[in-house]
């Protein structure tokens, strides 16, 4: 053990399991704080029943504009608070992966890949005028899709959500209508 530590000291490197080597990836960095997660079953059901849908090749995205009062303010400071809290609302995102899509390994892989794509694209929803809840349901084809394709689909969905929510705000509507 002492030999390994001596070798690391000679090389000027220390090993940190949590360290990320930024030099190997040009992928944009993002954050997805816990306060931006949609967690409660009634919230999911409300988005499914009252919200709108956006379909893409590898996922279906449900979204619902909500009243600011319905979502309590997060108790964060700094960049994480800026991500999920906006002037008049905030964004909360949840993931639903059905057992029909495969075993736990496949479902967790779908959830991880989708969550990572959301983390990269979450800044697109920054500065929205209204609070919005989003639920993402991946399809089986997400397992074999390449990550750039998944990321593009999430980006496109966020662009549509932002456009529809901003347009609905200018019309004076309080909630998105079901499609």
What does this structure look like?
With 179 residues, this protein is α+β, with helices and mostly antiparallel strands. The protein has one domain (32-170): Ribosomal Protein S5, domain 2. It is 38% helix and 14% strand. It has five helices and four strands. The chain has a four-stranded mixed β-sheet with strand order 1-2-4-3, with helices on both faces. Helix 4 (104-121) packs across helix 5. The longest helix has 24 residues, at 147-170.
In percent terms, what proportion of residues is strand? 5-15%
Unreliable residue runs: 17-25, 68-73, 76-87, 172-179
Biggest sheet descriptor: 4 strands, mixed
Number of helices: 5
Helical/strand content category? alpha+beta
CATH architecture tag: 2-Layer Sandwich
* Count of domain modules: 1
**Helicity range of the residues?**
25-40%
- Biggest sheet, spatial arrangement of strands: 1-2-4-3
The overall pLDDT average reads 77
Radius of gyration: 19 Å
User: Could you please say which CATH topology applies here?
Assistant: Ribosomal Protein S5, domain 2
CATH class: Alpha Beta
> Helix-strand pattern, N to C?
HHEEHEHEH
- End-to-end C-alpha gap: 63 Å
Count of DSSP strands: 4
Shape: globular
In short:
This protein has 179 residues and is α+β, with helices and mostly antiparallel strands.
What key attributes describe this structure?
globular; Ribosomal Protein S5, domain 2; single chain; 14% strand; four-stranded mixed beta sheet; 179 residues; 5 helices; alpha+beta
């Amino acid at each position: 053990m002492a030999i390994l530590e001596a070798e690391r000291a000679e090389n000027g490197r220390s090993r940190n399991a949590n360290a990320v080597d930024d030099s190997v990836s040009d992928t944009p960095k993002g954050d997805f704080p816990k306060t931006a997660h949609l967690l409660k079953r009634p919230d999911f059901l409300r988005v499914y029943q009252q919200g709108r849908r956006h379909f893409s090749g590898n996922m279906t995205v449900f979204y619902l504009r909500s009243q600011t009062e319905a979502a309590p303010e997060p108790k964060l400071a700094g960049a994480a608070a800026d991500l999920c809290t906006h002037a008049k609302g905030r964004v909360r995102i949840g993931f639903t992966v059905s057992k029909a899509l495969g075993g736990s390994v496949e479902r967790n892989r779908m959830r991880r890949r989708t969550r990572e794509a959301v983390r990269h694209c979450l800044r697109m929803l920054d500065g929205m005028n209204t609070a919005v809840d989003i639920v993402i349901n991946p399809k089986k084809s997400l397992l074999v899709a390449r990550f750039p394709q998944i990321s593009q689909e999430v980006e496109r969905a966020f662009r549509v959500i932002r456009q529809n929510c901003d347009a609905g705000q200018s019309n004076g509507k309080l909630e998105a209508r079901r499609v």
